[in-house]
Amino acid sequence: MELENILGTKTDVNFTNATNNACISIPSGPEDISRSRNCKPVQPILERFPKQKDGDRFRSFNSKLYHFKWLEYSVSQDSVFCYYCRHFSENGSISDYKCDTFIVTGYRQWKKCYGKSEKENRLLKHQLSFSHCKAVANYEAYNSTIEKGSVISQITQQKIGVRESGSLFRASAIDIESESIDYGPHSGNFLSLLALVGNHDEVIARRIRHGPGNAKYTHHSVQNALLDIMADEVKNKIFEEMQAAEYFAILADETKDLSKKEQLSIAVRYLYDGNIHEEFLCIEELETLDAEGLSSKIINVMKDRVNFQNCIGQAYDGASVVSGKHAGVNAIIKDRVAPLANYIHCFNHRLNLVLVDVATSIQCVRDCLSLLQKLYVFVSCSNIHTKWIKMQTDRGLIVMELKQISNTRWACQVSMLRTVCKRFMLLYELLSDVIENDSNSDRVIEARELLYQFSPDFIKTLFALRHIFEFTKNTSDLLQSPELDYSDALELLEVLQERLNDCRTDTTMQNLWSQAANVCHDLGMHDLEESCDMQRKTERRPQHAK
Questions:
Q1: What is the model's pLDDT at position 294?
Q2: What is d(CA 533, CA 540) in angstroms, rounded to the nearest whole number?
Q3: 405 and 511 share one domain
Q4: Distance CA 51, CA 493 (A)
Q5: Could you give the number of structural domains in the chain?
Q6: Could you give the CA distance from residue 115 to residue 97 in angstroms, rounded to a whole number?
Q7: Of the four listed, 117, 215, 221, 435, which is most buried by Cβ atoms within 10 Å?
Q8: Which DSSP symbol is given to 362?
C-alpha cells in the first residue's frame, strides 16, 4: 500500500455539521492542540522553534515535517502528536498502541524524524503502524457518515416525536379509564419509578392494576432475589471463561464504604479468546482486617469454581497485610492453595509511592502542596465557596473546583495544580476580597496568611510542579488500563523517565520561568530574578550580621 493511501488526503474536512455526539473531548495532552474531532490538526508556523541539546548538537522541530498531514505540534510542550490516533482510535487500548507517545505524552526526538526507512524515521514508522492505519480508517468512515448522520438524526427525532405523542395519548386514555398509579409518598425509589412508567405505558399499567396479586414481583425481597440471580449468571459466565483460559490472576483491594464498613473488592484477570479480560467478581464485607481474614474471603469466593493450581499471580497494593512475604495475604494464598501465584505490587501504587516520597523530601515542593491543601480547606467553607463559584460564573468562566490533596490519589494533586494555575489571579482576588470585606475576623486572618504565602517562589514552584505532574498523571492513568501487561508497564515508565529528563533542558525551564514571571508581573510582585537575587544575598549574609 502506498504511503498516501495509508495516510489519506482529506485532512481539510469541515466538521461543523457533525452531531454533538461527535464532539469528544480528549482526556490528556496539551491544550494548544486539537481538543475534539471538530478541530483540525494544529500546525503552527513559528519564526524559530525551541532548540534542545541532543548530544553535541542543538536540534529543533522543522515545519517541513507537516507533510505528515496527521502531525500536530504543541508549542507548550515542544512535542508532536498524531491527530488521527488521538481522536479516532477505537478504544485507546494499550495493547493496540503500546506506549505510543504520539497519543499521550508527545514525541520530540527530532533526530529520529528523518529518513526513508522505518528504522531511521520514527514518524514514518508510526504512520505505517497497524494502529495508525485503523485510526485513519475510522477517520474516513466518520467523515463519510457526517452528512448521513445528520439525516438519520432528523428521522430519529421525528420518530421520537411520534412515539412521545403516542405515549401521551395512551397515558390520557389510561387516566380517563382510571386514576393514575400511585403507591404513596413513602413507597421508595423503585415503586415510585414503576408508577411513573406505568402512567405512560399501557402494558405495565394493566399488569400493575389487573395482574395477580401474588405475581407482581414488586416486593423488595423479590427484586433483590432477581438481582442475585443475574449476578450469579454473570459470575458463572466469568468462571466458565476462566476455566477455558486455564491460567488466571487474582486482584483485590480493600476500602471503606459510606457507612465506614470495610469492604474487599475482588477481581480476576485472564486471557480468553485472544483478549485480556479483567472482570469484577464481588464486594465482600470484612469482619477482620488481618491477613487471615482477607485471604479466607478471597479463597471462599472462588473455591470449587476454579483450579487454584492455575493461579499464577496476585496483584494488590503495597500494604504489609497483603504484601508480607511471611504472613501476608499473598504468602497465605501461595502456601495453601496457589503455589504458582507470585505477588505483583500494583505498578500504579508503586509509581504513586515514589512520587509521594520524592515530593515530600523536597522542601519547596512539600511547602507548596501543604499550602494548596490549606487553600482547599479555606475555599471549601460554605460562604467562601459560594463566592468562589459566583466569581467564576460572573466572568463567564467554566466553574473549576479545588480538589483535596491526597497521597494515595495522585490525580488529585494534578487537578489541584491545574485549577490553581488557571485561576490563580481569581484566587488572589478572592483572598483580597475576604480580607477587605469579610466581617469574620478568623476568616480575614486566615485569608491574609494564605495571601502572604503567594510569593514568587511559590508561583515558580507551582508552575514547575504542574508541568512535571502532568507527565506522571498520564502514566498513572495508562498504568490502570485493564489491557496493560508487564512489557507495556516497563515501556511506560521508560517514556516517563525520558520526559522527566527533558524537563531539565534550558528551553523547558525558560518557558516555565516566563509563565511564573508573567503572573508575578500581573500581581505587581518582584520578578523572579529579583527574588532569587534577594534570596542569594540573604544566604551569603555573614553570621554576625544575622
A1: 92
A2: 11
A3: yes
A4: 25
A5: 4
A6: 23
A7: 435
A8: S
Instruction: Quickly state the pLDDT bin for 169 (edges 50, 70, 90).
Output: very low
Q: What whole-number percentage of the chain has pLDDT above 90?
A: 23
Asked whether residue 186 is domain-assigned, the answer is yes
Q: Do 500 and 375 fall into the same domain?
A: yes
Closest to 444 in 3D by CA, of 461, 426, 430, 457: 430
One domain, residues 310 and 393 = no
User: What is the pLDDT of the chain when averaged over all its residues?
Assistant: 79
Per residue in 94-128, pLDDT (tens digit) is 444 444 678 888 888 888 888 878 778 888 888 88
Q: Kindly state whether residues 200 and 268 are assigned to the same domain.
A: no
| Residue with grid cell 485532512, as numbered in its chain | 11
Contact 96, 478 (CB under 8 A): no
Reduced to 3 states, what is the DSSP secondary structure of residue 60? strand
Angle among Cα 34, 144, 9 to the nearest 5 degrees reads: 60
Say which amino acid occupies 9. T
Residue 142's domain comprises 51-146
Are residues 415 and 282 part of one domain? Answer: no
So what's the pLDDT on residue 163? 58
Same domain (yes/no): 452, 374? yes
Rounded to two decimals, the pTM is 0.52
DSSP annotation string for 71-124 = EEEETTTTEEEEHHHHHH-SS--HHHHTT-TTTTT-B--GGGS--SSTTT-HHH
